[in-house]
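Aim 2 progress update. The chain analyzed this quarter is reproduced below.
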Amino acid sequence: TSRAMQMRSDSAQRRKTDSLVMMLARANDSIRVLNQRVGAFQANIGGELYEMGKQLITIQELAGMSSKRIMELRSTMEELETSKEELQSINEELVALNQENRHKVEELSQISSDLQNLIVATDIPTLFLDRALRILRFTPRLGDLFNVRATDRGRPLSDLTHRLKDCDLIATASQVLADLRAVEQEVRDDQGRWYLLQMRPYR
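Predicted structure tokens:
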């Protein structure tokens, strides 16, 4: 009887041991699974932190670039403002110069008008030549002695025909230009009328 009781006690002890071993095995499996999950979680967290770190670096670089760009734009704006002020000053000078030129043009126009009126009103045949002996202008009375028209302005004196006798106008005009001294001489036309011819350098 004592032996049977001992055997039952040993059997119960083995069952408890087996149960403990199984419990330890399950606990080890659970710990292993937890360790795997923790490792995966750490890996995910590490990757996310790494990506966040890269993004943070990129943001910082962009911030640095933006600051540099802002400084460049600010410098450009200052240069443009300076250029604008310079252009405004130049424009004001041009406006003043334009007004001055407009006044001069009006004055020259008035002088030209006065001269034209004087030429028309002058009852003396008068011919104006340039240094190349080309026709600049003439009074209406010049038509009494020369075959001249308004379209003849700019033509050389040698192209004109006239009614003066024994008079070399081209030679006399050339002499006046060379000596810069006035020349006076009496000349007559084809009808025998006499005139006092005067040539003066145009200064």
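The first strand starts at residue 127 and ends at 129. Residues 37 and 80 are 62 Å apart (CA to CA). These observations will guide the mutagenesis experiments scheduled for the next reporting period.
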